[in-house]
Amino acid sequence: MEFKRYVKISSGIVMIFPIVLLILAGIAWSGNVYTGIIYLAVAVIQLVGMALIYPRIGEAEDIKEIGNKCVQHNWVVLSLGVTGCAMFLAPFFAVDSMAIPYAAFTVCILSIVLSGFNLYKAVTEAKARLVV
Amino acid sequence: MNKAEVWPWEDKFGDYALVPVPKKETRSLLTMFYTYTGVLACIAVIWGGATLGTQFYLKDAVLVAVVGSAILSLIGGLTAPIGGISRCSTYVNLRPAFGNIGSQVWGTVVSGIPALGWFAVQTWLFGVIVHTLFPTAPWATVFAASIWGGALMLITAYIGFRGLAFFSYLAVPFFMLLAGFGVMIGIQQGGGFAGLAAIKPISPVPFGVGVTEVVGMYAVGAIITADICRYATKIWHGAAAWIIQLMILQVYMLSGAAMLTLVTGEANVAGALLAAGAGFGAFLMAILGQWSTNDNNIYSTSLAINLWIPVKRHYIVLGAGAIGVAIAALIASVWGTAMAPFQTFLTLLGKFLPAAGGVLIADFWLYRWYKGERLRERYQFQPGMKFAKVNWVGWVAAIVGTILGGWVITWGIACLNCLWIGVVLYIIIAIACDKAGVGMGVGEHIIDKRGV
Asked: Are B407 and B418 in contact (CB under 8 A)?
């Protein structure tokens, strides 16, 4: 598959995870507004961070340039995913039950896996640098 | 033809320690931002914010953080473009203003040794925090945690700039979110913003004292910005990244820590976060925060020492790192000696840096302008270039600036006084020498293609 197309599709899939987190944030908000804000922060940064890749690669033709941009945006998602995994199972997030934290944790794991794979693809296929 | 194609240097010591970074190795604004923020994101800054929380009402604490950060932005905003233009580390950039021997001596005394010392202090602090979080675990004694923590921190510094930047990509968002977590806990337990704003500080101090604390906390970082931004793709990237991280993230972290302390009365933020239910996040905050800062400390040490010990830079990281870890593990925990005298010594050495930074700023921005050099032509080092062995004007300005600003003048912010006196003295003496036809340099040194 052409790399640019792959980036567009995989970015779209990655964006599903923060959208799920947004929903969880909405649910958590009613129980404890402060935990809701943290869910919201993670979700919004991941979502905006990933969405911005579309206009940035829109005009780009050079595969390495696309790869470098792919690396930048997927780093944002990956590092926020790691943050979520480390935080969401903490006692502070257990408002009524642990169902929402576990769901958020799972979503973060998925975002780490896919964004990590995107980094791998960008480095191996587009010859991008891991630190751009 | 781009700069990479006419790069006449040989990177003998690795990571472009003594030579300009070639164009093809430069990195984006985002990387500059992450790497600087990685330095900022440490427990010490959070503790600095916690101290503000014991000294000021919330509104004043935020104002102190803004004013202090603005001053640091100005200093870093002047030093970062120097690295962006020369693409060399701070210590190489000191050559024109201090001479070749001057750059070795001043680089080592004002940054190499203090950065190594602070590496030891931060490693020890890491051990203390881990021990606080896990008081009964055998792997979490101050001694053990200092050793394995210090070893972890050396990994990324050993790799070099790529290692620092890579780790910052991982650590920075985490640290920022966890600081946000602290803010949330503070607001929640403080009964909202209105409740927080009404909490009385337990040890109030004047406004200026708070600003001095904020500036002093990061003044060294503001002067050695070139160590990182020599890798910037564009000249303005370093300054922009530096200013953004200070005016947004430093203010945010200091204010967040101050909120948490106002509410809990607890200056140990990691402990407060653990008590408030941050769980594993508090532990990771200690590890990632200290790591992403301390690897930069030992990295700067290696760059400074590489000027007079011409071996592979990563050997210096290992050697200096081993000394730092030994200090942290042995002096602090096994021998039971408090770190206070050691920190006093480091603070003393650190007093010389602002004046040296002032000389660097004066030489690059003012003296070169006076001499009619165009901005992009300044500090364009080439093999075969001649430098004085000692530029006595730089030495005099830095020493007198330090003495006057650090000890004689008792008003204002000490490190800022050192800096502006260094600037004023250097430019006055240098222009006077130029008008009178008096030489500023003693001896001559020619750099080779290795940058030695």
From this structure: no
Report ipTM for this prediction.
Answer: 0.84
Q: For tokens 């030992």, what's the residue?
A: B298
Q: B192 to chain A: nearest residue by CA?
A: A34
C-alpha–C-alpha distance, residues A70 and A48, integer Å: 14
Q: Do B165 and A131 touch (CB under 8 A)?
A: yes
Residues B232-284 pLDDT 10s: 999 999 999 999 999 999 998 888 888 877 777 766 666 677 777 777 777 77
Tokens 């320690």 appear where?
Answer: B17
Pair type for strands B386-387 and B441-442: unpaired
Position B342 scores a pLDDT of 62
For residue A131, what are the contacts with CB-CB under 8 A and spacing of at least 6?
B27, B31, B162, B165, B166, B169
Model pLDDT for residues B46-62, shown as the tens digit of each residue = 778 888 888 899 899 99
Is A90 in contact with B280 (Cβ distance < 8 A)? yes
- Asked if B173's CB is within 8 angstroms of A131's CB, the reply is no
Number of A/B CB contacts below 8 angstroms equals 75
Q: Which amino acid is at A7?
A: V
What is the Cα–Cα distance from B291 to B170, expressed in whole angstroms? 11
Residues of A in contact with B171 (CB under 8 A): 79
List of chain A residues whose C-beta atoms are within 8 Å of the C-beta of residue B133: none
Tell me the CA distances in angstroms from B86 to A46, A72, B48, B323, one per residue in order: 36, 26, 33, 31
Nearest chain B alpha carbon to A83: B174
Chain A residue whose CA is closest to B24: A132
Q: What are the tokens at A48?
A: 């905006």
Listed residue (B376, B79, B83) closest to B243, CA to CA: B79
pTM score above 0.90: no
The 10s digit of each residue's pLDDT in B77-126 is: 999 999 999 999 999 999 999 999 999 998 888 788 888 888 988 898 88
**CA nearest B339: which of B117, B129, B141, B109?**
B117
Task: Tell me the H-state helices in A1-128.
Answer: 3-31, 33-51, 53-58, 63-87, 99-125
User: Which residues, in sequence order, are bridge partners of residue B386?
Assistant: B446
Half-sphere exposure of residue B288, counting CA atoms within 13 Å on the CB side? 27
Binding-site residues on chain A for chain B (CB distance < 8 A): 32, 34-35, 37-38, 41-42, 45, 68, 72, 75-76, 78-80, 82-83, 86-87, 89-93, 130-132
